Amino acid sequence: MSFPKNFLWGGAVAANQCEGAYLEDGKKLSVPDMLLGGDVNTPRTFLPKTDPEAFYPSHEAIDFYHHYKEDIKMFAEMGFKCFRFSINWGRIFPNGDDEQPNEAGLAFYDSVIDECKKYGIEPLITLCHYEIPWNLVTKYNGFADRRVIDMFVKYATTCFERYKDKVKYWLTFNEINIACMGEGGIGNLYGLGIMDPQDVNADHRIPLNELKSNMQTTYVALHNQFVASALTVKAGHEINPDFMIGNMIAHVTVYPLTPNPKDILACYDEDNLKNNLCGDVQVRGEYPDFAYRFFKENGIDYSYITEEDKKILKEGTVDFYTFSYYQSNCITVDENAETSSGNMTKGAKNPYLKASDWGWQIDPDGLRYTLNKLHDRYPKTPLMVVENGFGAFDVKEEDGSIHDDYRIAYFKPHIEAMSEAIEDGVPLIGYTTWGCIDLVSAGTGQYAKRYGFIYVDRHDDGTGTFARSKKDSFDWYKHVIETNGEEL
After folding, report:
1. pLDDT (0 to 100) of residue 201
2. Residue 2 lies in a domain
3. Which of 130, 160, 291, 434 is deepest in the core (most CB within 10 A)?
């Protein structure tokens, strides 16, 4: 095992999945605050009109807002070098288009950052992790409106100015490529804050997989997000040249299901559209040729990509590439092939892989392959795995212990795969596991889908004390960090 001495071991969360306090200290509604829960078999639902009888998991989440000192102390006990979390846009600019920032929101993140620094933990902050203020959805249709570009840049630069001496590592948009996943309107709502007017004004629950979507609007909004990201990178480097500002891609590695050349070409196209398009724009600073062919073949008028925008994209490339990795999928032209799903994507089932209780195919070898593939594509760009984890039903024993050997069994080969990739020459700088503490699942809205090394007493019926306790994986990951990945 040969991880660098300064390797950034840690864990990751998102504000909307852990903070709670959804209207506290001046915060107003964000997109996740309109989402109800689901389960393994039932999709999460959207309800735009607040229902006092409904249970909105993000409203209290795991109450990190009031437990952050306790939680960060536990992260420090594990030996975290890095903690990835997001700033909720609605805490800083409650409506998204406010003239002045909300001081109480800024002060809260001052406290969180200071608590990290107290233990020598490097903050890695995501500026937008599915937390677009709800007002921007209803008033502007999110990033479909170019005015929202300036609103995001204003928010980002406010954070940069406030925390410029405390935070080095930043990410602009979480999993920016989910808009390319083709899973209906879920990616549009989460990532872009855009919705069909009929859905916005609905007075009934809508399953997320039934939200309407419009391809033209999707790619206009995604482009506006690219421009916002590039302008943010430029502004950040002017505020502090030492900033490292990255992107974040939901990387779903794909293989052809068979040697059929049509499967191979279908896999190639899938990989390009869903994984490479956004990475190319943010790392290389320009749209790849295959994107223009895709636009033409799907009737997308791309005249919105102006010459000035192209200049901005080229000048605002990211400093490092980060991504989530949970699974892989197979691609085939065979419409009768057995399917598999996970992290907002679908594919063909791989007969050589096992899957989680939620059907996510487990493929640690795919992580080594992915890291090498990304290094080949972006050879001078540092890489970081900022989400990797295993959602499972954990059982708390009578003595309070949680024996999650299955989680350790998931992480161990993934860490070995990263080590192999480093031996291959991949410039991997860090690894933050997803859900280092139990939180609300973004995909299902469940508490029961647990990811953490730390158990939180909170359940899908809204009961629980929010008490924290260690799982077996807590001490295991602590030892991994202590030995810099040499002992698993």
Report:
1. 83
2. no
3. 130
Q: Give the 3-state secondary structure of residue 224.
A: helix
The per-residue pLDDT for 342 is 67
* Residue 193 falls inside a structural domain: yes
Active site residue 103: no
> Phi/psi of residue 88, each to 5°?
-80, 115
Select the more confidently predicted residue: 249 or 336.
Answer: 249
Structure tokens at 419: 């080590």
Q: Is residue 1 part of a domain?
A: no
CB 328 within 8 A of CB 253: yes
Nearest to 454 by CA among 46, 70, 54: 70
Q: Which residues pair with 329 in a beta bridge?
A: 254
Distance CA 284, CA 313 (A): 9
Residues 6+ apart with CB under 8 A from 461: 55
Return the H-helix or E-strand segment holding 372.
helix 364-377
> Is pLDDT of 332 > 90?
yes
Q: Which CATH number is 440's domain given?
A: 3.20.20.80
Split at pLDDT 50, 70, 90, the class of 38 is confident
Domain of 296 in residue numbering reads as 8-482
* Annotation marks residue 175 as catalytic: yes
CB 168 within 8 A of CB 244: yes
3-class secondary-structure state, position 8: strand
Q: Read off the pLDDT band of 59 (50, 70, 90).
A: very high
The two three-digit tokens of residue 180, written as one number: 């390319």
The model carries a pTM of 0.97
Within-domain flag for 3 = no
* pLDDT for 451: 97
The catalytic position among 19, 60, 122, 175 is: 175
Q: What is the dihedral of CA 371, 271, 46, 386, to 10 degrees?
A: 10
DSSP codes joined into one string, 278-312: HHIIIIISS--HHHHHHHHHTT---TTS-HHHHHH
